[in-house]
Amino acid sequence: MPSIDIIVPKSAPRRWQEIVVACLQTDGHDIAVIHESGSDAWPATVNAALSFERKIFRRRDPALAAPLLQIPASGRNRSAALRLDLTGNVAPSDVPTIALNFDGFNSDLSVATAVAAGTLPVIEAFLDGRTVIDRAWPMIDKRESVALGVEDVLARAITLAVSVVRAFVENRLVLHEPISVASEGLTGETASFASTYLTAALPRLGQEALRRARFRHAHWRVGYRFTDGPGVASAFELGCGWSVLPDTGDRFYADPFPFQWRGHSFLFVEDYPHATGKAVISVVPFDAAGVPGKPRCVLEEPYHLSYPQVFERDGAIWMLPEASSGGKLVLYRATEFPDRWAPEAVLVEGEISDATLLDHGGQLWLFATDRDGYGSTSDTLVVFRASRLAGPWKPHVLNPVLIDRRMARPGGAFVREGGGIYLPVQDGTLGYGGGLGMSQLLELDEKVVRLSPPRPIAAHGDWPYPKIHTLNRSGRLEVIDGIAAVRK
C-alpha cells in the first residue's frame, strides 16, 4: 500500500473528514494526517441552523457536519506517494494530490448554502488542481431539511474520496475534463447563507410541516393493466388502460412485481400499514377476467420488507425482497407457492436496496444501491456477481460503480427489448419517486460496468399519479406505482 498524506483543517474539522481518515486506515493504507492551518471554521449561524433542524427531526446521532476539536496529526518515516486534500487550500506539490470541490467551490461550507437554496450539489474529485477524475451527484432524501440534506451530500463526499483513492492505488483513474469553477467567490457564497436560509429554507420547512399535518408522508398506489401490445419499456411513456389496485387508505401498496404460474397471474407488493411503519410482502391473485383478489401477507420479518422480485430458476420459485433495514439481502424459496416462503441464503451483508437480478455472460449479477454507512439509499450503485444463485456473491472491482441520484437505484427487473438489455432506474432529481428512466446495459464483465444515460419515461396517459418509481411486466400483466396525496 502506498503512503498517503491526508490534509485536514487544524481547527474545527468536520466529522466527515474524520470518517474519511478512518475508512482509509481500515483499508490498510499507510496514513499520515497533516494539519492545514489556513482552513476556516464554519460560521456560527450555519452550525446553529443545522443544530436547530436536527432537534426538530430528532436526530441524535453525531452529524457529519459537526465540528470537532481536532483530528489528531500523525506522521511516518517515508515520504508520501499521494496527498488527499480535504480542505481545498493546500499549496501545489510534486506529490500527486486529490481534492474535492462542491459545485466549483473548494470548501465544503458551500454545501450548506446550496442545500438551503434548494439546489442539488455536484461533487468533483480532481487531481493536481486540473483534471476531474470522478463525479458524484448525491441524492437528498428530505428536501425540506438543510441539515439532513447536508448530511446526504457529505456522506457521498466520504464515498467519493475513499473510492478515488482506491482507484488511484489500483491504477484505475479515468481522467475527464478540466474542473468546474464557481461563478462567485466563497465569501459571497457563505455570506448569503443567513438570507438564503430565512427566505428559502425556513419557508420550505414550514410548508412541509403543514403538508404532513394534513396528508400522509408517503402513500403509494399500484397500477396494473393487461396488454398484448408493446409496454412502457418500448414506448417510453405510461400510456392508457391503467387500473388502480384498491387500498383502504390506512395502508399502501408499492414495488409491484408480477408473476405467471400455471396460467394464473399473481402480483407481489410491498404492503405498508401506516400504523406499524413496517412493510410486509403480500400477494394479489388475479382471476381469469383480470380482476384482482384481496391482498394477503405471504412474508413478514422483524424488519421492513419491500421490492419483492419473484422469479423462477433451477426448478424452484424464488423471491429476493429488499431488507436493507435488516442489514442483509436474503434469498427466499417458495415452499408452497404463493403463500409460504423459506429463507435459503444470505447473499450480501449491508444496507443493500432494490437488488435486481440479471443472468448475463454465463454469470449471475446483482445491481443494487448501497447506503455505504451514511446518507441516502438511492444514489450509490454497486454490482455483485456469482456463478450460482446462492452465491458466494463477489463485489465488482469498480464498486461503487457510480454515485448518481439520476440512475443509481433500480426501479424494476431487467428488460430484454430489441436485442438490448435495459434496466428501469429511479430518477431522484425531483425527490424520491420523482420518475423513472430506462438505461441500456452497454457493457458488463468482471472489469467493466457501463450503462447508458437513462431515457425518461413520460407520464402521458391515464395514470393519475405521475411520480412513479417501479415498472415491471410478466406476460400480459404490466404494473407501475405512484405517489398519491392521501389525507390523514
Structure description:
- With 488 residues, the chain is of the alpha+beta class.
- The chain folds into two domains: 3-213, Rossmann fold; 215-483, Tachylectin-2, Chain A (5 Propeller).
- Helices cover 18% and strands 37% of the residues.
- The chain has seven helices and 30 strands.
- It has helices at residues 15-26, 44-56, 109-116, 146-169, 186-191, 193-214, 232-235; strands at residues 3-9, 30-36, 82-85, 97-102, 123-127, 131-136, 220-226, 237-239, 243-244, 251-261, 264-273, 280-285, 296-299, 306-313, 316-322, 328-336, 340-349, 352-360, 363-370, 380-386, 394-395, 402-403, 415-417, 420-426, 436-444, 449-451, 455-456, 458-461, 468-474, 477-483.
- The strands form seven sheets. A six-stranded mixed β-sheet has the order 2-1-3-4-5-6, covered by helices on one side. Strands 18, 19, 20, 21 and 22 form a five-stranded antiparallel β-sheet that branches. Strands 23, 24, 25, 26 and 27 form a five-stranded antiparallel β-sheet that branches.
- Helix 1 packs parallel to helix 4, helix 3 (109-116) packs across helix 4 and helix 3 (109-116) packs across helix 6.
- The radius of gyration is 24 Å and the shape is globular.
- Mean pLDDT is 94; it is low at 184-188.
